[in-house]
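User: I've been going back and forth on whether these two constructs are worth ordering. Before I decide, could you fold them both?

Assistant: Sure. I'll take them in the order you sent them. The first construct and its structure tokens:
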Amino acid sequence: MKTRNAHDELRRVQATTDYLLQPSEDGWIIGHFSSNRLSSVFQPVVDANTRQVIGHAAYIRSETDNTNVLSPWGIFALATEDTLLVNLDRLCRTVHAINYFNTASGPGDLFVSVQPRLLESVKDDHGRAFAEVLDLIGVATSRVVIEIPSEVNRNWRLLRHVIGNYRSRGYRIAANHSRASDSWMAELGGLYPDIVRQDASDLLQYNGSDSLLDTVHRFGASLLVRDIETSQQMRAAIRAGAHLLQGRFLGEPARMIEASRPRAVAGGSPGARE
């Protein structure tokens, strides 16, 4: 997409929201919250079979006017009130969407997380505001994967409600697997997530991957193994039957879009480096 279109889309978003957005010198969009400048970094999500990049997970990066860098936890800690939190979370997803869909080439999907406090404070119609932003920039909600935070697994009713809300608007859903959720996640039935995420470190200790994979297959979902840091974890993910792979072994979060094969898996089998 051309820069001119990116600027047109930015103006449309600014005209219909109160988000503080501006283009940086290199053309990326920067959001402003308090005295902080917010930008995006993206980490590739890789198809375990083809080793091709199929999308990217977005993470927020921020710095103050004094160039002090804040962690994502630090920036969200500034939003002490629910109203501020809702505005900040929506601002972050807007920054990610404009940056990603005006930079990425091909049909890649954008993976974005939501804050657990937002899911609790917004009682209904989750995803409506973000869907309106996506419509302004000409992107279908089906190209966005909403990552439900693991904290929501503790609240069965909230998890069902949130998944139902997002799915009704066409988003795809990723939820986090844990040993505690293994026995009841299948009870979601038609609200079963499109993607189940498993931490690579837990996978090496978890003996129930076969049953997890059976359940994932039964509901037509995909298993994503994330936080892959080493070739050992990479091999374990492949053996476990993972469909999608993510982690620093495959690519660091960066202010660029990896469009083909990460260097760690390009040209052959995993395990090229430790």
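The second construct, handled the same way:
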Amino acid sequence: RVKDAEKKTENFITRPPVVVVLGHVDHGKTTLIDFIRKTKVAEKEEGGITQHIGAYQVQHSGKTITFLDTPGHEAFSAIRSRGAKVADIAILVGAADDGVKPQTKEAIKHIQAAKIPFIVALNKIDKPETKLAMIKQQLAAEDVLLESLGGQVPAVEISAKTGKNVDELLELILLAAELENLKANPAQLAKGVVIESHRDQKMGCTAALLIQDGTLKIGEYVVSGKAVAKLKMMKDFSGKNIEETGPSEPVLTLGWNESPDVGENFQAAETKEETETLLNRPLKPEVPIFLKESGPKKENKKILNIVFKADTQSSLEAISETIKNISSEEVGYNVVGYGIGNIKDNDIQTAANGEGIIYGFYVEIENSA
């Protein structure tokens, strides 16, 4: 994979579209994703979706579509905004019986900021009390003018519960992908984005990567921010071991020296010397999390010291987003420590020094602690 490979046009192939599903909580995003997954995921030998990969692929009309599985809770806005940026196409889910809600508006802003084409999926049309005319007008008020009202945005009326018109939605995705003319060059070294990051007791630091260009192979090095991996093992979204993977593919990678940050770019390298060069690049500023609270200050205010430990970087970001919205005149908080992985001795020490409390999310407490 010589450097010249990057420039040769004959090396370019059409790659699968990467799709993100956005919308208000309870409007049926998860139901839609589950329906597509159950009916369209090609059965693999191992079966069962890997928990921390954050993406999966489906087959429709002989073509592949990659879906990013971004969490729906409002606290995940940081990840969703990143999710929209790594995607080629967005699906905006709105409930036909409920209308445009705050998170629908937030999702529209993410899509517009990312400047990617999108399709509106008007869900829950199996319900008798739909308000389709109203939701179309509400969308128009947010600068989303549907084709049926003379605009440019395609829309499809679906039921994620029964699967009605879901095939039509997938056809629209493939059509949008064709218009975008998505190309990639598998002859070069892989680059892309970290979509999930996890520290596992048995496997060590793992990271789910979305390959945006090039081919990634076992034995190569990967650099993301300050984190480096020599790839000992790779798994596809179904948990099957693979030797190499190409553009628009999600892959779980093992062999990292530390957990890379979610949303950070990565670049593959063939030699250890190349990783040194990549590591010496100027780093992007980190996403600030757990900033101290701002708000009403009062004398004799009680301060609670907290340590947060979680299974993934994106969980920490979500917790950070959530506690920013908690304010009280009587009690304040101070995050004295946080990190990915199990609760250890030093976490106990940090909390004890400040007479604080430890919250763990999907992590265990090590025996010594």
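Notes on the second construct follow. The chain is about 25% helix and 30% strand. Residues 166-180 form the longest helix (15 residues).
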